[in-house]
Recover the amino acids of this structure.
């Protein structure tokens, strides 16, 4: 069964702290996406990771991909309140390019 | 427009009525997805269209749900005899689906409320 699992599903943290969200997947894929969703809004693309060892950074967010471990991480450095959102990872099934989604991680950053 | 467009943005309907939701994908995008998102929940896959291939309907929750897409253009999601549990935001996304680019772009969604 194809699965994409995120953990934690919910995270409450203080501003200024660091934390990591994990995305494990069960099928071979060399392409992974991270998206952000603000309450009541649609999904916004954050990162596209296209190969093993890929690392992308944007501001306080850094995403990495290990295709051998079938694991991606989204690291938050010195969190600020504006990063409060739900974060989704999605993996491409190579055979037909279909996206399979994790359940999302709801991140609340308290000022 | 340049993005994925969905209509209506909000729909309130009475239980038992049929509703039709529309999605205009980004021009040139061969792949189109429909998802359902209940309040505070993740994305629930409904259906996937890819070019002229047979759609992946494995996510449709019941035979009351159906979707069509004409070529690589507009898609409609139809829910017949709506039930209260159908209340959710219905999101549409499209992507280029070329070998090197499968990033999906989402519409703003249709918020369906069944009363």
């Amino acid at each position: 069964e194809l699965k994409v699992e995120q953990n934690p599903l919910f995270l409450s943290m203080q501003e200024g702290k660091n934390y990591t969200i994990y995305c494990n997947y069960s099928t071979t894929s060399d392409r992974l996406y991270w998206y952000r969703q603000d309450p009541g809004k649609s999904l916004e693309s954050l990162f596209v990771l296209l190969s093993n060892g890929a690392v992308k950074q944007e501001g306080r967010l850094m995403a990495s991909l290990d295709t051998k471990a079938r694991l991606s991480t989204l690291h938050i450095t010195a969190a600020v309140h504006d990063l409060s959102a739900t974060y989704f990872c999605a993996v491409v099934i190579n055979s037909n390019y279909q996206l399979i989604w994790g359940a999302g991680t709801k991140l609340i950053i308290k000022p | 427009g340049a993005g994925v467009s969905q209509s209506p943005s909000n729909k309130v309907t009475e239980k038992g009525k049929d509703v039709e939701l529309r999605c205009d994908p980004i021009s040139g995008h061969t792949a189109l997805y429909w998802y359902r998102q209940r309040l505070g929940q993740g994305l629930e896959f409904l259906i996937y269209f890819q070019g002229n291939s047979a759609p992946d309907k494995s996510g449709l929750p019941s035979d009351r749900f159906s979707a069509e897409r004409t070529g690589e253009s507009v898609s409609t999601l139809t829910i017949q005899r709506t039930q209260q549990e159908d209340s959710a935001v219905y999101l549409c996304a499209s992507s280029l689906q070329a070998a090197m680019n499968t990033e999906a772009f989402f519409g703003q969604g249709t918020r369906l409320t069944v009363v």
User: Anything to note?
Assistant: The mean pLDDT of chain A is 91. The interface with chain B takes residues 31, 33, 41-45, 48, 50, 88, 90, 92, 96-104, 106 of chain A (CB under 8 Å). The first strand of chain A starts at residue 4 and ends at 7. The two ends of chain A are 40 Å apart (CA to CA).
